[in-house]
């Protein structure tokens, strides 16, 4: 730990406006001065720089210091964002929402007061609500921008500050170069002590915004027009200690679907997320309680949102699985919803997916006479595709109603999955059988993922650099016929992504996670030989073989 870091920590503590984080930092400084190595490491990391403002805004652990999420950093970010909006147009406006994470409401109130004090019309949503409601509100209220205080499915210690733009951006998340422009203005704002920022009183939105979201989301189902109605499958639902339940229940009541059965231990917002290691439905064990309840209740479908309800997970009965349930992959759900959207599009519009998502959506689009677009990773890109009728990313993010929400929306996706499942249920079929039908029509597209979570962030660029310098010549018995660095202009400058194409048509893509300390590998394989179940087994086995071959490359 440098003396500069310790001096910066003392200065921060002296100026911190929050009694709690100031006391926490003073205790850490005292421990560091006494030689405590953990405290020394915390001071060094918390003051080694500023929490990076990127295309998802800010996201990090809640703690004192410029490289953490806290009231000072949130107010500095709000002042920088206010400066950006005031430079962009006269009389800008912003709507601000928050979820159930620790500190979210305080951060949202701080942001609103600083923005209002700077001369931006600031409107706070009336209570903690899902991220899709905030994304909807930007457009519904005609606002210049939006901020959602959330860290989505990150670990419990984290929180974040997610920025959307209205007007011509139609409520999408910010993209470059806007993120860099705002970051520069945050740096400038940070030169002034936050205690000296002018503050104003924000407006408080009425429940009308939430009711409008509920109505527009219910409208994407045909259940309120007599189809398919109350004869759907029995459903267990979990919001994973997040904010989804109230809105999901209201939407389903409006559509006429039977009520879902909530997982009681996870039904209410709790920022400690006591029943899961990580509040991410993709993580092993996250749906264990839902699966146990679904078995006890003889349910036929499990639906789960992540804590801010912008993602959706789906699990279906499977006698071969140890729990009796199998969670569908993001690509399986993505292709089901893509097929559902394509058959309704009547040859008009665009299907889109991030570049690491299954190529199967392109096959579905072609079969229905639709254009298919692959985007950079992240929903900020998927949502901006012109003519979009449906878009998804493999990380459980789906956009089924681009006319009202320009971001992934786990609640509207839940409505479409439930509508499709109910339609199939009435025909004596199921989502599992429909996946086999898609394999029969288009071939089996199977996907898998290998990821390595790191504690030393330097490992991530080291792994990527090694794979660039020494790409594999073969994987799982198949020659690597192309090794493409998608950061290079000749491959579109897509980002820090490596793509390996195998002789048998399989695809492997490697990238750092944009939100977590991970390196992620995406594996896709396909099969068109034999009956549908055989195709699925063959493609799934090939994915597993490639995954085993990839793991040693990440050491």
UniProtKB/TrEMBL annotation:
InterPro entries: A-D-PHexomutase_a/b/a-I, A-D-PHexomutase_a/b/a-I/II/III, A-D-PHexomutase_a/b/a-II, A-D-PHexomutase_a/b/a-III, A-D-PHexomutase_C, A-D-PHexomutase_C_sf, A-D-PHexomutase_CS. Coiled coil: none annotated. Gene3D superfamilies: Alpha-D-Glucose-1,6-Bisphosphate, subunit A, domain 3, Alpha-D-phosphohexomutase, C-terminal domain. GO terms for biological process: carbohydrate metabolic process; purine ribonucleoside salvage. Its cofactor is Mg(2+). Keywords: Isomerase, Magnesium, Metal-binding, Phosphoprotein. One of its GO terms (molecular function) is magnesium ion binding. The keyword Metal-binding applies. Residues 51-189, 213-315, 330-437 form the Alpha-D-phosphohexomutase alpha/beta/alpha domain. Residues 470-529 form the Alpha-D-phosphohexomutase C-terminal domain. The keyword Isomerase applies. Belongs to the phosphohexose mutase family. This is Phosphomannomutase. It comes from Agrococcus carbonis. The lineage of its organism: Bacteria, Bacillati, Actinomycetota, Actinomycetes, Micrococcales.
